[in-house]
From TrEMBL, chains A, B, C, D, E, F:
Signal peptide: none
One MF annotation (Gene Ontology) recorded for this entry: nickel cation binding
Underlying gene: sodN_2
Pfam family membership, one: Sod_Ni
Name of the protein: Superoxide dismutase [Ni]
Length: 134, 134, 134, 134, 134, 134
């Protein structure tokens, strides 16, 4: 699997620490979303019913982890000044977590849906890293 | 927290996919280990007993995640040819997971112990990325 | 423990079903937050160090469940038209989940902090039930 | 989904606190059982194999939560005097948790089985609230 | 740690299979309860506050696993004819799970409390193995 | 289900305690692997698609527990002198956990694969008990 080009530059692992266990990194959500995408690709390429059942079981778990890691960023990393500077942030996170849920990557095994999720996480990731440079 | 220099270059997020959900990345273990390190730093700097209890609770969880992510790499990513080429790999993973456990970062709140864990994960990480280039 | 008066009327359990497993109820977050409040009360009334350690362990778990149940409501129940009608909803959920986290009921054993969390959940609960009547 | 009439009156959320984290409420089991029921309804109405696999995955999780919440009530809330006054309580809980398991709502996607579970939880709920009024 | 004599004869691992995943063995609860006992012993022998906090964190988890494994036996393995033949079974399980909870091994670090739990599990274990021989 | 003869003699539950919560027993991995085997048998004997989906869901969970219990033994119980005396131990654990994963009992519902896993756990079990007698 080749990652869409836009995802690679911003995901170097860095650490941040302003609270108990204050290490945040969008890579956690991104890795799980890449897993979701890979599962969709393999699901479409394989008709075996046992394989497909397993793919859906695992995709459900990975997509739940995407939601969890995004929720943590939204609640624990981003603060009031960030939401003032980036007023679209709330909607971005709400849409991204919806894209990982029943109306997105949980409810669909279409790789294109997983790509939408990856793109949305990349938008969040860009804002995240921009806030680290101030 | 500044990361030790040696950790940064090899941890760009990439994806690998040769099995169902075949995305592996040492960054998952690394991020949790960075969290363990940050918790140790804050623990040493804070005498409040409530804060310290919380730090130990959270450190226990994060260190367990370090072990889990390393175990997954050892069992699911690395294959027989890797172990032939890198005969030290088994011991490296055994030592790294011990360093995340009772005799390491779970059993100690000393940041130096967490640093040993980070260094060991970096050794694994270098081998991991070397195997991706062949 | 007496519940603040304002919490009781809106929390009759009802069910909603417009998606796979589409049952939502703010009572799930509320019950866990009541537990957090009760733990804080007992923590303040008991000096035994074993009891206090256990209280902090359990409070951490319950507060995490509060966050989880609120995140589920925010992502899975509420839709675009709700956010248009109640533009304060995003901030309400962000503040409520922060109040359950490190800067709120996880980071403090003060019953007054738990009360702030209960009040915020009640605000969300009122909007939730208002959306059910249309 | 309309709830059976008999379920609604007894499920106002209240709190109880006689032990560390002593908040108990049958609503926790009830909400998960309502979810199981809703999943069965949707399963029967939808022939898509992906949807059906997801419904079974989620039903398994929700039914497990029903069992867990009921077990907690049986072990942690109810005391010896309750079991003396309501000698049928042990059997009620055993039957209810069986109805959430392999021989009940886990093993079947029939909404009628989920209804039996809801009815059994309602019997437990009535006894629970009766014990609160003494 | 030497196990009390009465525990050893009945705990040979055997398998039973009359339902999906129908393998039951009281050894699962017993091993976790032995862990709880060992933690209590070490807690009493060590005054280091970090060690003691960790002991309480881990004891809480192990005791929860004891409860879970016992609940599974009570709901999933034992059937109506067993409860007729052994009318004390319901109370035995209720007392055993209470002994693993707040009023028992969770709420106390006294090895004598853990011993009571081990004894109660042994009583259950004897009945379990008796039902296997018919 | 009859267990292969070779598995029974070495699995008497014993306890070991040289670290916080130092109770180890290969029976934990073995019981879950027996469950995986039983699920495979029932899967092959039943064509009902709902039953088969549930079997795959539960097999995935049980196989994950096999991996977890084996990883714990490998990291937490076995020490450097053990690995010197039994140089095949690393490979044994790596193969056993692979046999519980995607290339083994997770990826296949063939009872013969589950038997290979049981045999491998028995090899580990024999070494484990041999180390207890010194």
């Amino acid at each position: 699997m080749r990652l869409p080009r836009l995802l690679t530059p911003s995901t170097v692992v860095r650490a941040h620490c302003d609270l108990p266990c204050g290490v945040y990194d969008p890579a956690q959500a991104l890795i799980e979303a890449q897993s979701v995408k890979a599962i969709c690709d393999k699901y479409q390429a394989n008709q075996d019913p046992e394989f497909r059942s397993r793919a859906l079981i695992i995709k459900e778990q990975r997509a739940e982890l995407v939601k969890h890691h995004l929720w943590v960023l939204w609640t624990d990393y981003f603060k009031a000044p960030h939401f003032e500077k980036y007023p679209e942030l709330h909607a971005l996170f709400n849409e991204a977590t919806k894209l990982a849920g029943a109306s997105g990557a949980k409810g669909s095994a279409d790789p294109a849906v997983a790509d939408q999720l990856l793109t949305k996480i990349d938008e969040i990731s860009k804002i995240f890293w921009a806030t680290k440079q101030n």
